[in-house]
Specification:
Number of domains: 2
CATH topology of the largest domain: Spore Coat Polysaccharide Biosynthesis Protein SpsA, Chain A
CATH architecture of the largest domain: Alpha-Beta Complex
Order of helices and strands: HEEHEHEEEHHEHHHH
Strand order of the largest sheet: 3-6-4-7-5
Largest sheet: 5 strands, mixed
């Protein structure tokens, strides 16, 4: 976003220090001018978008910087500009994981606060999140701390740019699972990132609700759409949000039903069963 040049430089330094083959890097200015960028061992490309396309739109622009669907590379690491790779073997671990399992499509890193080492519960992409140091197969991933095989993007398409913010990773994850790809949360692959609250974004409550509806409308078999959204409506009410937050959430929920959600490609029932066996059926 152009407002964290020191953090960006620290992230790029941590990427340059990774063991193994040098990593090719692209930095996307998402509606903001880029600062002066350093030279990196694997080369550095830059993209300055004339307007803010949102999180998925910006990441899609980064993918296309490596050719259509990222065809010039085998996998792409998505790293938030205020993150940092504290270990030098993260890229090598990614290479090893993708090489060992040809059906593995997406890796989700563990996000830890650099000062406390704490991983927020919301950053563990599974229901049983009490132990963030346990790796496991999962049904979604963390967009700003992840690695995606470009063959996944070529097969199922990019992140949904129209989402702008919230749930775009889950949309891609569900499509990848439906195509037979696997997703793993790897606790040994760490991204340092300061502890934050998602509600710091002004659009948080509206877009979380709107995109939740879009996610269901685009991807779920029709019988599961009201079940999934009914569960999330009840969960939201049970959390007792403030009146302004609830008003924004309900407005976004309505918008999700009344606005176009993009192409509908409902997942197969065997994918629903696969997700249930992984511990997170697509009703919660």
């Amino acid at each position: 976003m152009g407002n964290r040049p020191e953090e960006l430089r620290a992230l790029l330094d941590s990427v340059a220090e990774q063991k193994g083959d040098p990593i090719e890097v692209v930095v996307v200015g998402n509606g903001a001018p880029l600062p002066e960028l350093p030279e990196l061992p694997g080369g550095l490309r830059s993209v300055e978008l004339p307007e803010n396309l949102g999180i998925p739109g910006g990441r899609n622009a980064g993918i296309e910087a490596f050719g259509e669907a990222g065809r010039d590379v085998d996998a792409i690491l998505f790293l938030d500009d205020d993150g940092l790779l504290p270990e030098r073997d993260t890229a090598e671990l990614c290479r090893q994981a993708f090489t060992a399992d040809p059906a593995l499509g997406i890796l989700s890193f563990r996000i830890a606060d650099p000062d406390t080492g704490v991983t927020q519960r919301r950053h563990v992409p599974r229901l049983r999140a009490a132990d963030p140091t346990r790796s496991s197969k999962v049904t979604t991933f963390l967009g700003g701390a992840s690695a995606v095989r470009t063959a996944v993007i070529a097969e199922v398409g990019p992140l949904p740019g129209e989402f702008f913010y919230a749930h775009e990773e889950t949309d891609l994850a569900w499509r990848a699972l439906d195509a037979g790809w696997g997703i793993e949360y790897r606790a040994d692959m760490v991204l340092h990132h300061p502890t934050t609250s998602p509600s710091r974004h002004a659009v948080y409550h509206r877009m979380v609700a709107r995109n939740r509806v879009w996610l269901a409308r685009r991807n779920l078999p029709l019988p599961l759409v009201p079940v999934y959204l009914g569960v999330w409506l009840l969960l939201t009410l049970a959390r007792r949000p403030s009146r302004p937050a609830l008003r924004a959430w309900l407005g976004g929920f309505k918008e999700g039903w009344t606005s176009p959600c993009g192409p509908r490609r409902p997942m197969k029932w065997r994918t629903v069963w696969r997700m249930a066996r992984l511990g997170r059926p697509p009703v919660i």
